[in-house]
Structures are given as C-alpha cells and as structure tokens.
Amino acid sequence: MAVDNFDKKIKQQLEARKIEPSARAWDQLAAELEVKEEKSTKKYWWLGIAASFLGGILITSFFFNQQQVEPVKVVNQNTIEAPKNKLVEVEAEENSQEINNNEELNVVEKPSIAETENKTQPEIEIEKPVLASVDNSSVETKNRAQSKVIPQKKEEQKAQEIKFELESYSSPKQLAQTKTPSAEEEAAQLLDDARERVKIRNFNNYYNRISAQNLLENIEVEDKQSFKEKVFYALESGFHRVKNSVIE
Amino acid sequence: MKVIQLHQNEKRLIKKAMKKDRKAQQSLYETYSPKMLSVCRMYVKDLQFAEDVMLKGFMKVFVNLSSYKAEGSFEGWIRRIMVREAIDFLRSQKKVQFSEELENDSALASENSFGSVEEVDFLQQKIDELPEGYKAVFMLYAVEGYKHQEIAKMLNISEGTSKSQLSKARKLLQQKVEPHRKENHGGR
Questions:
Q1: In chain A, what residues touch B124 (CB-CB under 8 Å)?
Q2: Where exactly are the structural domains of chain B?
C-alpha cells in the first residue's frame, strides 16, 4: 500500500506539470512539416506522370486497333454513294453542253423524290418534255442546221457510256451486301425506274437534237445534192464517151 | 456539456489536421505541447533535448494522424508516441544501462538532495539523478502504467530485469524524496 501511494503521488505531481515550449518550436515544426509534405507530393506527382504515360499508351494502342477495323465500313459507304455522284456528274456535263432540256433534267434530279411518289407521276413528267423539246429544237435547228451532225455523234457516245456506268453501278449484287431484303426490292424498283428514265431521256435527247424537221431538211439537201451530182456525173461521163469516140 | 463540446472541437481539429490544415495542426500543438514537453522532460534531463524530442514526436503525430483511430483518447495516443520517442532518444545517446553497481552511486547522490524550492522541480531533480535504466523502468511502470511485459519489450530486457530495476528505482527515489517531504509536512 505504501508503495502504491508513493507511485500515485509521484504520478499526480508529474502529470499535473506543464512546461511551455520555446516560441520558435512551432515555427521549426511547421517548416519541417512543409518539407515533408513537399517530398510526399513530389512522389505522387511522379506517380501521376507514370500513370498518365501508361494511360496514353493504352489509349493510342486502342485507337490503332479500331482504325484497322474501320476501313471495311468506308469501302461499303463508297460503293453505295458512288452512283449518286455519277448522276450529278452527268447532269453537270449535260448543262455544260447548253441543251435546253430543263424539264428533262428535273426528271433526273428527282430520283430521291420518286421514292415516295407514285410510279405514274414520273411518266407524265417525261412525256411533257418531248413535246416541249420538239418545239424548242425546231427553233434552234434552223440556226444550227448541218453543223450539228458531228456533235450529235459525240453526245450519243457519251450517253451510251453513262448508260453503261449506271447499269454497272445499279447491279443488285452491290446493293445486296448492305441492304435488307425489303430494301433490296425498293432499290431494284428505283433502279429500274431510273434506267427507264435514262433510256427515255437518251432517246429524247437523240431525237431532240436531230428532230424531224431537221432530218427532213437534211434529206432534202442530200437529195438535191445527189441529183445535181447525178446530172454532173451523167454529163461528165457523156462528155468522156464523146471525147473518146472523137479520138478513136 | 462543455466536455462534449471540447471533444467535438477536438475531432474537428483532428479531421482538419489530417487534411494538412496548418492552423488546426497549430491549435492541436498548442493544446498538448506543454503536457508532452513535461512527459519528455521526465525521461530527458536537458530541457532543450526534451523539446527536440517533443518536436520529433509531434512530427510523427501529424504525419501518422490518419492511423489514429478514435477508440482511445487523443492525448493518450500522443503521449505514447512521446514516450517511445524519448526512449529512442535515450537509446541513441546510449544512456540506458542496466547494472547492479549503479545503485551505490545513486545512493551517494541522494545525500545532496535537499534544498529545492518547488516540490515538482525537486522531484524531477531527484528523478534525473536516478540511473537511466532505473528511471525509464520506474517512469514507464509508475507514471505511464505499462506492464512489465510491455516494458521488457520496449527496452529489450527480460521481465525479471524490469521488476528488479523497478524495485531498486523505487527504493532509491524514496530515500531521496521522503526526508524532504517529512521536513515540509513537519514545517506546516
């Protein structure tokens, strides 16, 4: 008991004691804490750099892997979009040739609209330009006369080339790769319509550029020329026979 | 009510100090530094060295504040850190020696133990006169409340040595302090 009391007394006296530290003690501790925190933040900073570097490598490798797969999709898009571009090119070429077939061009520009409209509407639109084109061409042909025969052949060649291109692009095999069966039928119908329109347009162009009156005039000219030539040749041959007989 | 408010304030300060809030750290330091310097002074004779030990201890407190679990008192947690830091200091100074011969030397020292003005200062003076081995075991057992097993682990000695050092330290200290106390009480 005496021992315990002695220990307790000493404990009480020492625990009750307080010693104030010097004034500079806190400043010293704060400075040491700042140094310690800076070191720890530097460690985390380096860890952050290393983590971001690894992350960058992973992201780049992921993108490269994606790019290797993507080209297949791009090829399909090109095959589908190509016919549209060709149609636009055809239109541009025809505009440059100064042919007054605005109504016919409208027919070509409308394939996208024709998807929703009835099939009878485009036929009516096509028939109108034929009559109008004949009237327009009758005025033009008087001025141009015979000089149009050679350009007409070039235009025919171009029309045939375009026709082949359109037929090649509108092959059902290409569309079958990308579209569903229901869409294939619609696409086939639209392509058939487009082909018919192109054929009619080419046919109209051919006859629009030539025209009935133009042909008749040409024929008359040719007939006249041939008659004169026949007379000329007859006279010439008669003259040679007379000449030969006189010599003989 | 006041005790609860103080406890809540202490919790807030600890949370802020965990987030490296310098003001919170300073307020915790200002609250506990006088007591902790007293603890360090029990083990370390020189006040300047004791203050250095205390600052090292507070450094460990703020760095390892996240490891503090609010199961025991915050003061007790800091105190344990300070005691360990003081013992590490004594070890680094190679002052912790456990020998039987020192008993006679300290007994001689106790002859000149009277004449101090303040009782606590006198007590501290007499504790400082104890050999380091005696002093460490006595303070850890009598003041800090550690068991002999824990003291043996802390000081890397056997439990038997811890017990014998304690009994000798107690005897020596009683010899030094009791006559002075009897004089003071008799005077009153």
A1: 14, 17
A2: 2-92, 117-184
